[in-house]
């Protein structure tokens, strides 16, 4: 579903992603892993068109994303949950959720009810400002907002960072449900190994801007963990 080939990215003179290949097959939940600063967020931002790439190709569901500006990528069917719970703090929960509606193919005018089935707390707080929600509720709002688009691929950048354990568990259950029951393809950046093992069926590891390992989650062994993940 998502194919990245020979991607090179620079911040000014600093070569950050090197000849990077990555495959996210349809229906999988793939976890992008690696130590701090190896380029995980940079890669996701390249996929979303938020950063320019120097060379390489990003293809999604038959579309060459290199030719699409950032604003066109979400309507193609990519939902994005950036790092750091980026709600629109001055807008209400309802307004935050409605933002995705115009990008839907079916031009639906209502927030899909399954969003509130997944996140009942959002229904209770529809009139509350995004910035007044707790951290966990904000993360649920941002995931809900990405789902309003009716994406085929959901990209999440460290969705559990700084979130209390019971909400982490809830978010894990929801990602599992979206992937296994609804068939949404998921690409997830996650540092917490137990969480990654619970929700993802595949892993890809980056090290200093290069893709160094990938496979089924069951193949993520102690040697790979020691070499590329432990600090
Ligand atoms: N705006 C920027 N300008 C210059 N360098 C940057 C910028 N953003 C990130 N970098 C550098 O690019 C490299 C990759 O950063 P990135 O945030 O993509 O890593 P990451 O794997 O997502 O890290 P983390 O797990 O800490 O979020 C790092 O060396 C970082 O310092």
From TrEMBL:
Residue ranges spanning the membrane: these are none
- Name the chain's protein: Urea ABC transporter ATP-binding protein
Which GO terms of the molecular function aspect are on file? Answer: ATP binding; ATP hydrolysis activity; branched-chain amino acid transmembrane transporter activity
Concerning its family, UniProt says: Belongs to the ABC transporter superfamily.
Q: Which SMART domains match?
A: AAA (SM00382)
In what residue span(s) does the ABC transporter domain sit?
2-231
Q: Which GO biological process categories is it annotated with?
A: L-amino acid transport
Domain of life according to the entry: Bacteria
Question: Which keywords belong to this entry?
Answer: Amino-acid transport, ATP-binding, Nucleotide-binding, Transport
Could you tell me which PROSITE patterns the record lists for this protein? ABC_TRANSPORTER_2 (PS50893)
| Protein source organism | Sedimenticola thiotaurini
């Amino acid at each position: 579903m998502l194919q990245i080939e020979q991607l090179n990215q620079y911040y000014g003179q600093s070569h950050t992603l090197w000849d990077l290949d990555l495959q996210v097959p349809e229906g999988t939940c793939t976890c992008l892993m690696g130590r701090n600063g190896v380029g995980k967020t940079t890669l996701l931002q390249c996929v979303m068109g938020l950063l320019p790439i120097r060379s390489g190709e990003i293809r999604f569901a038959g579309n060459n994303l290199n030719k699409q500006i950032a604003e066109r990528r979400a309507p193609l069917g990519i939902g994005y949950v950036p790092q750091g719970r980026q709600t629109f703090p001055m807008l209400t929960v309802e307004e935050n959720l409605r933002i995705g509606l115009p990008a839907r193919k079916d031009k639906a005018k209502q927030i899909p009810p399954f969003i509130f089935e997944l996140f009942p707390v959002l229904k209770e707080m529809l009139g509350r400002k995004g910035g007044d929600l707790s951290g966990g509720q904000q993360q649920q709002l941002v995931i809900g907002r990405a789902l309003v688009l009716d994406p085929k691929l959901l990209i999440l950048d460290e969705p559990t960072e700084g979130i209390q354990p019971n909400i982490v568990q809830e978010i894990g259950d929801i990602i599992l449900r979206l992937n296994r029951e609804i068939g949404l393809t998921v690409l997830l950046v996650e540092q917490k190994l137990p969480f990654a093992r619970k929700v993802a069926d595949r892993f890809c590891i980056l090290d200093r801007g290069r893709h160094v390992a990938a496979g089924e989650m069951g193949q993520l062994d102690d040697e790979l963990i020691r070499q590329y993940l432990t600090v």
